[in-house]
Amino acid sequence: MARLAFSYRWMLTASLALALPLAACGDDEPPKTIDREDTDPDADAGPDADGGDPPDAEDAGDTDPDADGGDPVDDLCEDVSCEAGELCVEGECVPEPEEGFSCAAPFEVGALEIGATAEFSANPDGQPNTLKTRCSLPDHDTSPEAVYAFEVDEPARVIANLTGSGTGLVMELREDACSDAEAEGWCSEGVNTRTFFAYPGTQYYLIVEARRDFSVGDFTLELTTEELVCDSPGSYSCDGDNRVLCFNGEEERSFACGTGCEDGSCLGDTCDNALEVTASATFTGEFLAFTGEINLEDSPSCSTGGDVGPITSGQELIFSLPGLSAGQVVTVDASADEAPAVIGIMSACEATPTCVAATDTAETLEFTVPADGDYFAIVDSLTPRQGDYSVSIDISEVGQ
Question: Over the chain, what is the mean pLDDT?
Fold first, then answer.
């Protein structure tokens, strides 16, 4: 027999001096959902490690939404008229699900409490099956489901934990459109815990069912809600000359650019924001403040021998050298740090650079300007680096 129960309990936080008791509550355009979080902060080798959204390696049960058979089609119900209190599912009239067991009448949780855990117990067996999660294959029947609707009043991390004895239990999150099998969200089978980020203005629906037509049985769902220190996990901002990473929403990590910071990127990080240098100067900062968008493996002109492009999977610094005159000597020195790098001079800054002078065997490059014009210098690490970098650029006058 289907049943559903709900309770709230508060989490212990650092600001509390004692534990709070369990409290019963009755029986009743940043990115929206970021379906990942870093599990090993020390493994972060640079900004790109936190900026992308590849599928979690742990979520082996996740499937491509395109493989979803969709919610049960109602083509068979076009000519079926059901009585009050019934609905048509695949051509047959069945009793309407009780509250909490369909998208039409989900369990209305309301706004999740920051710093608290909402606990739900249910058993949807005996209810009609009205939808199919994207974890299910098109030709598989699925079980009845329980559906929970909730929102948040401020950006939050939500941890969903599902325990139960049923076979092939599935959790699916849908945003804004519960009945839309292609709505934004995720689906997990065989993964008991999922962490995601929730934002105000979005209605979330969490669906629990069993794959195929297995019995769901008794289950308990816990939704633990944590406050975000920063509300755009994986994004970057600037704090003076530092680039700041919003790490998992729980921590702001600051990295010294040493060159200046604009719009969340260090100056000198890409061709578009190459750091302009018009006089001799030395730059020091942290490698982790920079990305590694350029790899010189397809640029043989950027090697000492000129025949094979050097592989540079690490971070690079790019400098703009405008208005140079023929005969001037530019010396780029990257020997003060311990990071092996390729040093190149380019007449244009491109994704696949062409160098007019380069070295991948020395830490210093001396370049005599052949003709008046604008040039660029690149210092590209062979591998991703941590620690501090140091680059000196000396620009001599003609004849010196």
Answer: 83
The answer as to whether 175 is a domain residue is yes
Indicate whether 220 and 336 sit together in one domain: no
CB 84 within 8 A of CB 77: no
Check which CATH number belongs to the domain holding 105 and give it: 2.60.120.1090
How many residues are present in the chain?
A: 400
Count of CB atoms situated within 10 Å of the CB of 301: 16
Alpha-carbon distance values, 10 to 14, 103, 116, 161, 330 (Å): 13, 28, 4, 16, 63
pLDDT, one tens digit per residue, over 309-321 is 999 999 999 999 9
- Asked whether 103 and 178 are in contact (CB, 8 A), the reply is yes
Is the pTM here over 0.85, yes or no? Answer: no
CATH number of the CATH domain containing 337: 2.60.120.380
What is the spatial distance between Cα 173 and Cα 169, in angstroms, rounded to a whole number? 14
